């Protein structure tokens, strides 16, 4: 009489994810662990029925961990085999684990209203931060320090901050959102520098063009009057039309200041000399 030993069937393996979530964003890595009831098993991982990878449990361990540098959406499960008395036993398939992959949170965008990087001290302004998912919670930072946080309105992907006092500095923002119960945080936005100036500086700057124009006009008037006094010359041209048969006379009268040698005098006052030319037809 012979006795045949029938080994017990292998225990159904269990599968788990790290992080413990069924939701991931594109480009995110994850670890998928599979454990059985017997050490030294050879585990195989599948996604949507297609083979992904296989790995043998080390030493006396009954579990392996598959590392996915960039996890993909699908339904994952695993099973393992074990050598017993020269034969190979295969376990049942584990439960399915569904994984969904969403698009990554985009870097938010910071904008100002009024659209200027230079504001007057005490001037009010709005700082808006926009993300890629609606309903996020936005945080505003200045020079790396938290200024304030607030949620975006329902079904809106933009939060608008209205600080009581806008201060100079490098402003950035980030936002967080929940997707199927898991919290995600966006990258930091590009920085926007804000500069402040005082009201008196603006008034002084605005008055500079008016003062410059006034000074130029006064200077031109002074130079013009001086040139007129130095080079005064009166030239008179007169024409008389006589009656029929009379002589036609044209007089060309030039008035200059002269000295005794009939040359132009330096002084402005003095006798007036006239040159008269008579022309007959």
UniProtKB/TrEMBL annotation:
Entries under InterPro entries matching the protein: Ig-like_dom (IPR007110), Ig-like_dom_sf (IPR036179), Ig-like_fold (IPR013783), Ig-like_Receptors_ImmuneReg (IPR050412)
Protein name: Uncharacterized LOC103172572
An annotated GO BP: immune response-regulating signaling pathway
Keywords associated with the record: Disulfide bond, Membrane, Transmembrane, Transmembrane helix
PANTHER family referenced in this protein's UniProt entry, alphabetically: MHC CLASS I NK CELL RECEPTOR, OSTEOCLAST-ASSOCIATED IMMUNOGLOBULIN-LIKE RECEPTOR
Domain of life according to the entry: Eukaryota
Domain Ig-like per the UniProt entry, residue ranges: 13-100, 108-173
TM stretches of this protein: 206-228
């Amino acid at each position: 009489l012979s006795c045949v030993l029938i080994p017990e069937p292998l225990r159904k393996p269990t599968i788990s994810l790290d992080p413990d979530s069924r939701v991931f964003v594109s480009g995110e890595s994850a670890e998928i662990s599979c454990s059985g009831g017997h050490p030294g098993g050879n585990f195989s991982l599948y996604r949507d029925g297609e083979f992904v990878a296989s790995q043998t449990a080390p030493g006396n361990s009954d579990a392996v961990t598959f590392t996915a540098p960039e996890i993909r959406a699908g339904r994952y499960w695993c099973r393992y085999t074990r050598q017993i008395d020269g034969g190979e036993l295969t376990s049942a398939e584990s439960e399915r684990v569904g994984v969904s992959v969403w698009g990554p949170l985009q870097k938010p965008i910071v904008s100002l209203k009024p659209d200027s990087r230079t504001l007057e001290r005490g001037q009010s302004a709005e700082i808006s931060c926009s993300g890629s998912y609606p309903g996020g919670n936005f945080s505003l930072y200045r020079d790396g320090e938290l200024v304030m946080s607030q949620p975006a309105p329902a079904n809106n992907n933009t939060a608008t901050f209205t600080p009581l006092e806008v201060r100079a500095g490098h402003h950035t923002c980030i936002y967080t959102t929940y997707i199927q119960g898991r919290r995600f945080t966006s990258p930091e936005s590009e920085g926007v520098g804000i500069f402040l100036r005082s009201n008196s500086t603006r008034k002084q700057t605005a008055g500079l063009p008016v003062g410059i124009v006034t000074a130029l006009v006064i200077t031109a008037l002074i130079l013009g009057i001086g040139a007129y006094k130095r080079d005064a010359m009166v030239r008179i041209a007169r024409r008389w039309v006589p009656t029929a048969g009379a002589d036609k006379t044209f007089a060309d009268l030039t008035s200059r200041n002269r000295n005794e040698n009939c040359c132009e005098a330096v002084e402005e006052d003095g006798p007036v000399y006239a040159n008269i030319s008579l022309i007959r037809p």
